Automatic annotation (TrEMBL):
This is AAA family ATPase. Gene3D superfamilies: P-loop containing nucleotide triphosphate hydrolases, YefM-like domain. CDD domains: ParAB_family. InterPro entries: AAA_dom, DNA_Partitioning_ATPase, P-loop_NTPase, YefM-like_sf. Residues 70-239 form the AAA domain.
């Protein structure tokens, strides 16, 4: 074991403040009683890694599943794409699945919400860390290595991803490159990801088409009527993307930021559960919770990790389990 600190249980009370400071700086502290280790204080990142590891070990080996590739998209902004992508990724990781998370929006709100842009010197701010290189040649270059964040492998975004659209506008044949690069990465992994989750940009451009075509399932978060106005645009794009991903399907609508007491949300839900349910199933609602989502953003952590007991985190877990059912993936107990 690396150099963990130790503290005698009798001394803990007087050293509590310094001990907690050490833990929050990333140290593990073993508490000793009668000269034997009896407990440990560990940073939360270690705790989450442990929870994910235990959940993964619990999932039996027989439950082999092919990688599920999910793209979160909506041709409108602010519907909750990045939030749903992040929360879904981490609730799946907590259930024991191995998860990859791609930020494919040059605005990088997902990357920022995970704190990866906080340090001006962060590699996440460099073009090399993004998927942009896979579009730089006719034959896709391999993906760069991901950045592990609390048990999930993340491919970050930054504004250099804007260049992908100029490349694809000149040569649309490269729109299949991201899908192919992900295929190659999965094929080279001894234990491939159970889930690949892609967060996308709202503008309907060729990069969005390439992003959607890298998945097999399209998940559409909707938080208002505006989020449905551009649905036909999204569906047209799915048709184009099917040229690259023939089995791509609209798998679910996720009602997000829902306040059931608000009239226009009642109208939205009626519309979703009426006419639109013929297009795709509707998951249970994720409620609107400014307090929880606000502090998650501030803490640079997914709500399911930092505020697991809140109603909105419970909604996210319920939505995730519902989605697993739609994907015919065995749901862990
Ligand atoms: N369920 C929710 N409750 C409260 N705020 C939310 C919820 N979902 C998203 N938000 C907030 O709404 C804003 C837009 O969400 P975001 O995920 O960035 O949308 P998009 O990626 O579609 O542009 C963000 O400030 C986010 O924190
Ligand atoms: Mg976003």
């Amino acid at each position: 074991m690396e150099s963990d600190l130790s503290c005698k249980s009798a001394a803990l009370r007087s050293h509590l403040y310094t001990t907690l400071e050490q833990v929050s700086a990333g140290q593990r502290v073993v508490i000793e009683r009668h000269a034997a280790p009896m407990a440990a204080l560990i940073p939360m990142a270690d705790y989450w890694a442990l929870m994910m590891h235990r959940a993964r070990a619990r999932r039996s080996k027989e439950e082999f599943m092919p990688t599920q590739r999910l793209v979160i998209a909506n041709a409108s902004g602010g519907e909750g794409k990045s939030t749903v992508a992040r929360e879904l990724a981490y609730s799946l990781a907590l259930l024991g699945y191995k998860v990859a998370l791609f930020d494919l929006d040059p605005q990088a709100s997902l990357t920022k919400a995970l704190g990866l842009h906080d340090d001006p010197a962060s590699p996440a701010r460099q073009e090399e860390a993004t998927v942009s290189r896979v579009f730089s040649r006719d034959e896709p270059l391999p993906l760069p290595d991901p950045m592990p964040v609390h048990g999930v492998d993340v491919w970050p975004a930054n504004d250099t991803l804007n260049s992908v659209d100029s490349i694809l506008n000149n040569d649309f044949s490269r729109a299949s490159n991201l899908r192919e690069a992900i295929d190659a990465r999965l094929a080279a992994m001894p234990e491939p990801y159970d889930f690949v989750i892609l967060d996308t940009k709202p503008q309907r451009t060729n990069f969005l088409t390439a992003s959607v075509a890298a998945a097999d399932h399209l998940i559409v978060p909707v938080s208002g009527i505006k989020g449905l106005e551009n649905l036909d645009i999204l569906l047209k794009m799915v048709k184009v993307a099917r040229g690259i991903a023939p089995t791509l399907k609209l798998t679910a609508f996720v009602p997000n930021r829902i306040r059931e007491d608000v009239n226009h949300h009642k109208v939205l839900l009626e519309h979703l559960h009426g006419e639109l349910s013929q297009l795709a199933p509707i998951t249970p609602n994720v409620r609107d919770s400014l307090a929880t989502m606000g502090s998650a953003t501030e803490l640079r952590l997914p709500a399911v990790l930092c505020k697991p007991k809140t109603k909105v985190s419970e909604d996210i877990v319920t939505m995730t389990r519902h989605l697993l059912g739609l994907l015919h993936v065995p749901v862990p107990a």
